[in-house]
Amino acid sequence: MTPQTIVTVGAGQTAAVAARNLRRHGFDGRILLVGDEPYAPYQRPPLSKEFLAGTETTDSLWILPEKWREANEVELITGTTVTRVDAATRRVELAGHRPIAADAVLFATGGSPRRLTVPGPRPDLVHYLRSLDDATRLASQLRPGRRLAIVGAGFIGLELAATAVTAGVAVAVLETAPVPLAAALGADMGMVITSLHRDNGVDVRTSASVTEVRTTAESVLVSSDGVAEEFDLVVIGIGITPNTASALASGLDVDDGIVVDAAGRSTVPHVYAAGDVAQRFSDRARRHVRVEHFDNASRQGVAVAGTMLGRDAVNDDPHWFWSDQFGHNIQSLGAIRGTPVLRGDRDALDFTAFYFDGPHLCGALSIDRGEDISVARELLGRPIEADALGDEDIDLWDLAYSDETDDHNEEVPA
Fold first, then answer.
1. DSSP class per residue in 286-339
2. In Å, how far are 53, 124, 127, 163, 237 from 222, measured between CA atoms?
3. How far is CA 61 from CA 17, 42, 69, in A?
4. How many other CB atoms sit within 10 Å of the CB of residue 62?
5. Fewer CB within a 10 Å sphere, N or C end of the chain?
6. In this structure, what are the phi and psi dihedrals at residue 165, rounded to the nearest 5 degrees?
7. Tens-digit pLDDT profile for residues 35-89
8. H or E element in which residue 189 lies
């Protein structure tokens, strides 16, 4: 059955991409996006970089501008929480609004920052960075000479550190792990990124256990390993938790996210989930996975739009991440593990590291070599001569289109 009314619970990247692709596929029914923020759908990646640095304004963030929404008859309700969806009737119940009858519902509720309990009289000195309001509030505080503590050295924390130091802020990053980003990039590449930050003036402290954060009348005290240190402000970046309250109230299967099949279907008929909140089954990984990244949100938005229209357009591509720090573009693709084969100059931060699962290429990480990642997409899962990848006299595209490798595509772990 082709739905006549599709409602998205959430109005972020995934919902916006799904709406855009529903129209591209010729869906002419009603599309209604419901978001709890007071804004139309916007991009989050620039918040820790260009927007925070003041080089981009809100005008560059909008995914579905008002003119496009009007031309494509996509409705938007902002500043509103969906309390539950009736599993039997798919009636969407909203706080402060009349219920909406829907034929299909997409949960794209994303996630919220993990928070710390911070006592004291100045909660305004304690920041998180997830929303446009977060970024706007923080931007006004990043002034030369101020001291900023960042709790957590994930991608967002390190992007923020790079932006803040460039603006003249003294930054200390406190990370519990021995090597930042080791879980995502491996210890070796994690150290490369850590050195990049230290070389640019960021005080990166590893194996640092933060035991307390509290405010005083003038500052923030951050206690780590028994020592309390004073800062002008603190940003807490210790990850996010999926927003599943409305899904739980609707009777959906929830397990660190909304559990869905490979095509985005939940356990309730005609109810779907995608993006940061979705615990999606991956044939590639042979298990359910939940991925928190802009690219995944976009790709799953495209795929679930097809699913809602009766097309099982499963997207199970290898995970791709990117980050921009101190003028360097960092990209990773697939599974980053083991000892890589290097191509380029590691010391100059102009290289690609290729990773293998036996003879097969399973992942790649590059700094300022985005084209190598494009080639790696074509080579993933193929048996490749490792020395050839490290030889800069060999054109990687020649390897990608070699007759010897065309017939050897295999599954690569996510």
1. TEEE---SHHHHHHHHHHHHHHHTT------PPPEEEEEETTEEEEEEE---SP
2. 25, 15, 13, 21, 14
3. 14, 5, 15
4. 16
5. N
6. -65, -40
7. 999 999 999 999 999 999 999 999 999 999 999 999 999 999 999 999 999 999 9
8. helix 182-199
